[in-house]
Amino acid sequence: MLDDQSSDYNQLRWNRLLLRGFWFVLILSIGVESVYFTMTDRPEYFVWAFIVRPSALILAIILLAEAGVRFLPKQHDYVLISASALIASVLTVSNPEEPYLIFTLFFPVMISIFYFKLTHLLFALLNGFVSLAAIFAFGEVNCASLTPGSFVGIVSILILFSIVAVGILLRGRELRLHLKSSYESNQELLLRTIMMDKLAKTDALTETYNHMAFHEYLERLVEQSESSGMPLQLAMLDIDNFKSVNEGYGHRAGDAVLRDVGSVVRSMVGVHDIVARYGGEELAVLFADMTAEEAYERMEEIRGTIHARPQPAIGGESVTVSAGVASYSPGQGKEAFFEKAEAALNEAKRHGKNRTVLAR
Q1: Which of 105, 161, 270, 308 sits a CA distance of 20 to 30 A from 277?
Q2: Are 75 and 83 in contact (CB under 8 A)?
Q3: Domain end: 166, 182, 198, which one?
Q4: 308 belongs to a structural domain
Q5: Same domain? 217 vs 102
């Protein structure tokens, strides 16, 4: 389910990408200063003041950010935002003759947008304006080229960019809430569809599949057996003397017995096996990927369990069941397969009931 933490999706990966971006800024800074180095007449001073010193500071900031992300997992967002503000400050202070670098102080605001959280954006704004104030108070930025109007303009642009960032976050939140609402609606519709499909395929009394669903699964499994050679067995089970139960104890008692028998069968088959109510007191079981002997033994276990189980609805007496098991043969077809299982069930009935017959 989508929730308020959905904006944290893949956050660790994005933090790693941001750290790589910091390394790229360091390499780019060295590259740009190297170009300027070819134009200077004070190479030793230039290397120290514009390449070595700022690069060392940025490197230290990045290494601290790497450590913060590793050892402060709950604060790594704020670590990266603060690191971006420090990198922007170093670039600005290290190049006092280039006042346009002040706009790099918008860097932390851009970083905060990745997190889609207003608190992170406000923290980034705080970092940006504190850095701006510190640079003008203690730095060596060439203020001669910055009139009061220029300073106000820079601050205004930073504020304007921040307002745009807030708008992006609010729009992102709106889209996220819409996505969450759509997701939940689709989930509800899917669940309703699943429930309706289940109700359409389930016998209400025994909670097994109904006659229609049985034939649907029988056809699918026969096709799969034909194509892949998967062993497929069909067992037909019938409650012995069920008519006398209804006549002697009433249909409500008969329903209770049938419900209990269905419950026993469902509990004793595998998760991939199909149990269905085929007729009044007749159940069908499709055993997928099981040999005929294994299916026969399983039906014998089911028959024995039902026989030993008292039925409160008929005064604690037990009922017996007869079963016939048939194995699918390639090219047989589902009708012949079903008739083979029915014939085995009828044979069990003719030979005294309360037994399982394996079709040959």
Answers
A1: 308
A2: no
A3: 182
A4: yes
A5: no
Neighbouring C-beta atoms of residue 250, cutoff 10 Å: 13
> Do 155 and 301 have their domain in common?
no
Neighbouring-strand partners of residue 207: none
Total domains, the chain: 2
Counting other chains too, the contacts that 175-179 makes at CB distance below 8 Å and 24 or more residues apart are 176/2, 176/6, 176/7, 176/116, 179/2
CATH number of the domain within which 241 lies: 3.30.70.270
Residues 130 and 236 in one domain: no
| Global model pTM greater than 0.85 | no
* 336 touches 359 (CB < 8 A): no
DSSP string for 292-333: HHHHHHHHHHHHHHHHTS-BGGGTTB---EEEEEEE--TT--
Same domain (yes/no): 149, 54 = yes
**pLDDT category, 29, cuts 50, 70, 90?**
confident
In terms of residue numbers, what domain contains 36?
4-182
Based on the domain organization, do 174 and 286 belong to the same domain?
A: no
**Residue type at 206 in one-letter notation:** T
- Residue 301 lies inside a defined structural domain of this protein: yes
Token couple for 194: 């699943």
Residue 129: which of 151, 98, 96 has the closest Cα?
151
Burial class, 271, CB count within 10 angstroms (exposed 0-12 / middle 13-18 / buried 19+):
exposed
d(CA 221, CA 225): 6
Q: Both 216 and 170 in a single domain?
A: no
* Cβ neighbours of 160 (radius 10 Å): 10
Is 224 a domain residue?
yes
Residues 228-286: pLDDT tens digits? 989 999 999 999 999 999 999 999 999 999 999 999 999 999 888 999 999 889 999 99
Contact 51, 28 (CB under 8 A): no
Closest CA relative to residue 276, chosen from 222, 206, 350: 206
Using CA atoms, how far apart are residues 106 and 162, in angstroms rounded to an integer? Answer: 8
CA dist 121 and 82 (Å) reads 12
